[in-house]
Amino acid sequence: MDGTAVIPVPIREQSQIAEARRKAIQLASIASFSEQDSGRLAIVVTEAATNILRHGGGGEIVLDARSHDHGGEVNILALDSGPGMANVQDCLRDGVSTADSTGTGLGAIQRQSDHFDIYSKPNLGTAIVCGVRTAGYQQRPPFPGLEVGAVCLPRIGEAVSGDGWAARVTERGATLLLVCDGLGHGLGAAEAAEAARSEFLRSKERLPEPLLEGLHKALRGTRGAVVGVVRIEPNDRRVRFAGVGNISGFIRWRDGQTRTVSQNGVVGHNVAKVKEYEYAYGGDLLAVFHSDGLSTKWDIDSYPGLATRHPMMIAAVLYRDFKRVRDDNLIVVVKTSET
Q1: Domain presence at residue 164
Q2: How far is 278 from 306, CA to CA, in rounded Å?
Q3: Which residue of 17, 39, 117, 282 is surrounded by the most CB atoms within 10 Å?
Q4: Distance CA 9, CA 275 (A)
Q5: Residue 40 sits in which domain range?
Q6: Distance of alpha carbon 70 from its chain centroid, rounded?
Q7: CA distance 262 to 143
Q8: Tens of pLDDT, residues 14-35
Q9: What is each CA distance from 201 to 132, 169, 170, 190, 297, in whole angstroms?
Q10: Are residues 41 and 189 in the same domain?
């Protein structure tokens, strides 16, 4: 059975570095870490949090633990809005520092991590996406022709998020994606989002319109949710979308871009006839879907080279800079390429 836990830790003062390390070690048990794996994780989180405070002037660590029958992993987002780095490769070398330090932090994070990625530009802060895995960990089979990354966190002060997402693959190789936001916050919103996830994963429907109609029936008796259902067909270079409420979607390809269209209403309460929209694309695809916990004012072209990075990095940077702190936050990024 899968297990998952996501914990954000603000890094504003020295004591929060130790707090991030303690939280990481707690999550190591969920991921079935050995003592050696736990030790590597502690080094990564300590060095990342120290860098955030020392070089970025403060920021946030997000810890995401996952486990299944083939092992476990803890993924780490280390985010700051500090001065950034002009030359990342130089800063990865031990002994190179932009502050009065030994300059071993980034190198240690990279060495102790099983995967590591960094995005940093002058005046645009720094984002690190990395993770530690058990020795026998096997990644889940990928979505055909796609890479997917997501950030989903509760509003500050809430134990659970009212936002949620899920994905599954059809027998024809298309990927179906659910993005939902339960009304309000807290447990009631989380129950609505979980009801949507459960129905989406259980349903035999393969197209957004009938899937959304089924979700409308399944969410009766909950407080309701706003929902977007997406079908991505890499072989046919086509995206289908049906949405109700303020779930935002941005689709970009080689020669153009567009935003998805949603209907007014609340799934589980009041929905008019569901309408499905189809978007054809050519070449590489970048698609971003998010709840209203993320401002719509973002422009990926303001971040040089970010659109070429892994979806997890894109999601992390947009979350850092455009999250609404008084709301649950959900952003899902999908990329595909001609190859």
Answers
A1: yes
A2: 26
A3: 17
A4: 40
A5: 3-133
A6: 22
A7: 25
A8: 999 999 999 999 999 888 899 9
A9: 28, 10, 11, 16, 32
A10: no
